[in-house]
Amino acid sequence: MVVGGVAVILFANQPGQQAVPLLSAWDLNSFSWMQRGTVQDMMAFMAKTVSERTQPGQRQSIQENNFTAHVHARPAVDGISGVIVSDSEYPVRVAYSLLNKLLEEFLMKVPKSRWNAQAAQLAASGSIPSKGEGIVRSSDFPQAQDYLARYQDPRQADTIMRVQQELDDTKIVLHNTIDSVLQRGEDLDKLVEKSGSLSQQSKMFYKSARKTRAAA
């Protein structure tokens, strides 16, 4: 069976600061055109939320409804993290193989000096782009969209997976819901309601999904 990723978003991510999208790639073909804006809203919000709650050097996967956000935070000196939002059946090892490769290539091709100051300014002001729109042009790093397309079928990643065996030795923290990564006293419903990046339609979609899950 072919399962795949919905989004890849790279963030400028320093502990204690808001995560700022640097670059994003999307594959929303499995959704109707009427759903795509809302799905993109929710996935970008989910990715930003979990990225901000992943410590440098940590990797964790968080399930929410039928999707999983796989997060890989590079060491603090790099100031960057990556999130792939995928179908819940997408193999964890493939997701982290993709993230590891993308983050390494991004740091090589797009030096931190090109985006760090702007990211810090946006984080301080709170003027974070919506829908995962990044401050780095996609033409400066087209590999994000290329890899998302190539990794839609995990079987196509076998070669890359075999040369990245070291990932097996790194602990991955698994969470059943996004609530599991929130800090004490944080409430996801309130985070959604206060979010300036989510449209009213997306907030209504979120509330409906939460009610449906609670009733199941």
UniProtKB/TrEMBL annotation:
Cell location: Endomembrane system
A biological process from GO: endoplasmic reticulum to Golgi vesicle-mediated transport
Mode of membrane association: Lipid-anchor
Keywords of this entry: Coiled coil, Lipoprotein, Membrane, Methylation, Palmitate, Prenylation
Coiled-coil annotated spans: none
Matching Pfam families: Longin (PF13774), Synaptobrevin (PF00957)
Keyword Cytoplasm in annotation: no
Family membership noted in the UniProt record: Belongs to the synaptobrevin family.
Full protein name: Snare protein ykt6
Species this chain originates from: Malassezia pachydermatis
